[in-house]
Design brief:
Number of domains: 1
CATH topology: Rossmann fold
CATH superfamily: Alpha/Beta hydrolase fold, catalytic domain
Helix content: 40-55%
Structural class: alpha/beta
Strand content: 15-25%
Strand order of the largest sheet: 2-1-3-4-8-9
CATH class: Alpha Beta
Radius of gyration: 17 Å
Distance between the termini: 34 Å
Number of helices: 11
Shape: globular
Low-confidence stretches: 1-21
Largest sheet: 6 strands, parallel
Order of helices and strands: HEHEHEHEHEEHHEHEHEHH
Number of strands: 9
Length: 258
């Protein structure tokens, strides 16, 4: 782990230095449960074309505090302003990671949780009707250290998670999905960085994981600078509508630039 963190620090410092010279912040993308960093590929391509340095972090998906600490270490090693972007559970992570980070200037929530202190992802997803995730989960995988990992059943992945993504691509996403611990989704939030850092929200109005009404509620509560609802978009709006997501990230970057 120390070697990995050291390597990340070197990469991040290099990116941050280049970005500081360009005058643009570095964008750090944090994926959520049942996904991996490649879910940001379409967004990364647009941001890099537009002159942004980007880090698509490998979120451990082990727990809010632990994952938040990991992302905080990455963000603090970047020698430039940072825009933190989280998808789904990644929203809980950036809300934790950004607390006390002076170089984090904006938070962008992409179909993501923005919990209040003491709230959990499970509570927020059930706050309003519309989430159908529970019945699509596979049998939990017991972990040797205790607890369990959760996956979405592969034959239900497309309809539940990525309905507006081509079937072939959704099958690949289902096979390569990264599990999240059951404990992570039930861990109570310790920090809510959106209270102190400007935020932007984007979500799909056909999201079956986080009900659109829940996303709207969280955006309103956070006094989001801008909220975008993408018609017909699934939970993976960054995969199916990368241009809309990249545009909002760039707006956040522009509004918070020195």
């Amino acid at each position: 782990m120390k070697t990995l963190l050291a390597g990340l620090a070197i990469i991040a410092a290099t990116l941050g230095s280049a970005q500081a010279q360009s005058g643009k912040p570095t964008v750090v993308l944090v994926h959520g449960a049942f996904a991996d960093a490649s879910s940001w590929n379409g967004v990364v391509a647009i941001l890099e074309k537009d002159g942004y340095s980007v880090v698509a972090a490998a979120n451990p998906l082990r727990g809010v505090k632990k994952d938040g600490g990991y992302i905080a270490s990455l963000a603090s090693s970047i020698e430039a302003p940072v825009v933190l972007v989280g998808h789904s559970y990644g929203g809980s992570v950036i809300s934790e990671a950004a607390a006390g980070q002076k170089n984090v200037k904006a938070l962008v929530y992409v179909a993501a949780f923005a919990p209040e202190v003491g709230e959990t992802a499970v509570e927020l997803s059930g706050k309003f009707p519309g989430s159908s995730l529970g019945p699509t989960l596979a049998k939990p995988v017991a972990l040797s250290e205790g607890g369990s990992d959760l996956y979405i059943q592969q034959d239900k992945f497309h309809d539940q998670f990525a309905a507006d993504v081509p079937v072939g691509e959704a099958k690949l996403m289902a096979a390569t999905q990264r599990p999240i611990t059951e404990a992570a989704l039930n861990e109570r939030q310790a920090n809510a960085a959106w209270k102190a850092i400007p935020s932007w929200f984007i979500y799909g109005d056909a999201d079956k994981n986080i009900p659109p009404r829940a996303s709207e509620f969280m955006a309103e509560r956070a006094h989001a600078r801008k909220t975008v609802s993408v018609k017909g978009a699934s939970h993976v709006v960054m995969v199916s509508h990368p241009a809309a997501v990249a545009e909002l990230i760039e707006q956040a970057a522009g509004e918070t630039a020195p």
